[in-house]
Amino acid sequence: MLVTTVSTDEELQQVSSLNQLNLKKNISEKKISKEGFVSWEYDLDLLKAVHHFSPSIIAKEDTTVVGYALVAVKAAAVHPELAALLNKIEPLLYKTKPLSAYNYYIMGQVCIDKNYRGLALFDQMFALHKELYQPQFDFVATTIATQNVRSLKAHERVGFRVIHKIADHMGNWLLVIWDWGEPG
Question: Full-prediction pTM beyond 0.90?
Answer without folding.
Answer: no
